[in-house]
Amino acid sequence: MILLNMIRTEQCFSHLITCTMKHVVKILSILVTISAIWVGLLQTSIVPRSHTWLLPIYFVVSLGCYGLLMVGVGLMQFPTCPQEALLLQQDIMEAKEFLKQKGVDVSSD
Amino acid sequence: MEQRKEEKNKYSIIIPTYNERLNIALIVYLIFKHLRDVEFEIIVVDDGSPDGTQEVVKQLQQVYGEDHILLRPRPKKLGLGTAYIHGLKHASGNFVVIMDADLSHHPKYLPSFIKKQLETGASIVTGTRYVQGGGVHGWNLMRKLTSRGANVLAQTLLWPGVSDLTGSFRLYKKSVLEDIISSVVSKGYVFQMEMIVRASRKGYHIEEVPITFVDRVFGSSKLGGSEIVEYLKGLVYLLVTT
Ligand SMILES: Nc1nc2c(ncn2[C@@H]2O[C@H](COP(=O)(O)OP(=O)(O)O)[C@@H](O)[C@H]2O)c(=O)[nH]1
Ligand SMILES: [Mg+2]
């Protein structure tokens, strides 16, 4: 199974344009790219080393914050539709009336 | 010279049912009320409901005609995914609509699905609760929290290109549904998510229309158990296979 996947991944790299990569490969490539940039920063020490060492922590923390923020905002703006429940009740009454006339069993027990 | 008449679209509405005797009657009435000038058929796939759903469907056939309401039952409860496949085999339309029987999916939105498809030529039109004009009624805070969390996670990891992954009120070109349904293996909520993610990866044109979702009034939900765990497993599965 793993071997198969490896063969597939290799095929992906050889026909990068035509072959669709598995999604996890895309995400891993992004992570690898980010790590490469980080290692580059560490070695060239453009930024002070002590700062660079902390970057992965900043990255993880900001990712977490992003997630929490999105969930929070989503919760606060959660679209609700109380009026739809009332409309549905009307539709149900109307349907029951009609169906009863036509001899369909709509008794709810 | 022969003038080719434009072929008329036909919509096959597949409704899986398990213990929905009241809901199926109500939804059929509402479908006929809201679908006026289109050709359609309703395919009810009932899994041997003990509550007499099939008797009600037969009564409905007397009222609306057997060519409009097709009962395609199965002997026992075999699950939702295979119910769609079963219904699809009997569909004669060039478009297929999939919706739940429990009135959470209101038939009044059917015209907007059809209109959107005609305007855009999309292969799939999917109902979304999370845009302007959409919404949910009847969920408690916990249910909302899980829904939001699941959605953020899926959006961040899968980039599916649609805003509502687990909704199951959808219109498909029949050939497209046949193409993707055969490669889908998940069950439960993940089933709907896998369908739309696979369709998106295959490059099918997907459009969205807002729908409102009112939690079921009659009967009880059949999905349940450890939904969150199943969902997470499904997410990982989709990450490595699509
Ligand atoms: N044929 C068939 N229909 C099912 C089965 N399980 C659920 N359904 C139907 O699928 C639809 C959605 O199910 P529901 O229990 O409302 O799921 P929920 O809305 O996610 O809670 C309803 O119309 C059910 O009657 C099954 O095993 N077989
Ligand atoms: Mg439901």
TrEMBL record, chain A:
<protein>
    <submittedName>
        <fullName>Uncharacterized protein</fullName>
    </submittedName>
</protein>
TrEMBL record, chain B:
<dbReference type="InterPro" id="IPR001173">
    <property type="entry name" value="Glyco_trans_2-like"/>
</dbReference>
<dbReference type="InterPro" id="IPR039528">
    <property type="entry name" value="DPM1-like"/>
</dbReference>
<comment type="function">
    <text>Transfers mannose from GDP-mannose to dolichol monophosphate to form dolichol phosphate mannose (Dol-P-Man) which is the mannosyl donor in pathways leading to N-glycosylation, glycosyl phosphatidylinositol membrane anchoring, and O-mannosylation of proteins.</text>
</comment>
<dbReference type="GO" id="GO:0006506">
    <property type="term" value="P:GPI anchor biosynthetic process"/>
</dbReference>
<comment type="similarity">
    <text>Belongs to the glycosyltransferase 2 family.</text>
</comment>
<dbReference type="Pfam" id="PF00535">
    <property type="entry name" value="Glycos_transf_2"/>
</dbReference>
<keyword id="KW-0808">Transferase</keyword>
<dbReference type="GO" id="GO:0035269">
    <property type="term" value="P:protein O-linked glycosylation via mannose"/>
</dbReference>
<dbReference type="GO" id="GO:0005789">
    <property type="term" value="C:endoplasmic reticulum membrane"/>
</dbReference>
<dbReference type="GO" id="GO:0006488">
    <property type="term" value="P:dolichol-linked oligosaccharide biosynthetic process"/>
</dbReference>
<keyword id="KW-0328">Glycosyltransferase</keyword>
<comment type="subunit">
    <text>Component of the dolichol-phosphate mannose (DPM) synthase complex.</text>
</comment>
<dbReference type="InterPro" id="IPR029044">
    <property type="entry name" value="Nucleotide-diphossugar_trans"/>
</dbReference>
<keyword id="KW-0256">Endoplasmic reticulum</keyword>
<protein>
    <recommendedName>
        <fullName>Dolichol-phosphate mannosyltransferase subunit 1</fullName>
        <ecNumber>2.4.1.83</ecNumber>
    </recommendedName>
</protein>
<dbReference type="GO" id="GO:0004582">
    <property type="term" value="F:dolichyl-phosphate beta-D-mannosyltransferase activity"/>
</dbReference>
<feature type="domain" description="Glycosyltransferase 2-like">
    <location>
        <begin position="12"/>
        <end position="180"/>
    </location>
</feature>
<comment type="pathway">
    <text>Protein modification; protein glycosylation.</text>
</comment>
